[in-house]
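Exercise: predict the fold of this chain.
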Amino acid sequence: MTDYLADIAWSYDNVAVSYAERVVDGADWEVEAFDLVAELAGDGLVVDVGCGPGRTTGLLAERGLKVIGIDLSRGMTEVSRRHHPELDFRVGSMTALDLPDGSASAVVSWWSIIHLPRDVVPTAFAEFYRVLAAGGVLLLGYHVGEESNHKTSGYGGHAMNVHVHRWTASSLTEIAVEAGFTPYPVAGIPGDRLLFRK
């Protein structure tokens, strides 16, 4: 495992339990976003990449979706399985998804690309594109801006060693288009969310 992936996994192993206790509410427009994913995905597979403690995976499953939650942190995956024992959670990286080509109808990346180095994000988008079937949808949440910062603790003061990268919509859209995606405009979508289609 490369150093940055090891640092992300170690950091979220440290904070997994306290993160799950503290991050219990979603952002505005979340209900509408997941309803839209349910509408567009139909009865196909939805992949929640960087699923953390499984909160978003559970919300997607509540909409009748067949969903897999994938997270780099084994600690987060263990918390997810305790909270949602009926769902499928796996340890894995969005930079090398262990899924067949064209096997998913939707990928949800809900504030999970923010720790990847900027030059690695295109690799993640290429993986999202690869695992999606034709017509599949990518829902992306991210922090808006252009700066980066180094996070050394969080969620109760536990040690972390990750970088948090902010993005503009135009820069992420450029990466998505280069990967093969088409922007999917939705009226009223907040500025820290993007939707693309294969």
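Check your answer against the key: The chain has one domain: 3-197.
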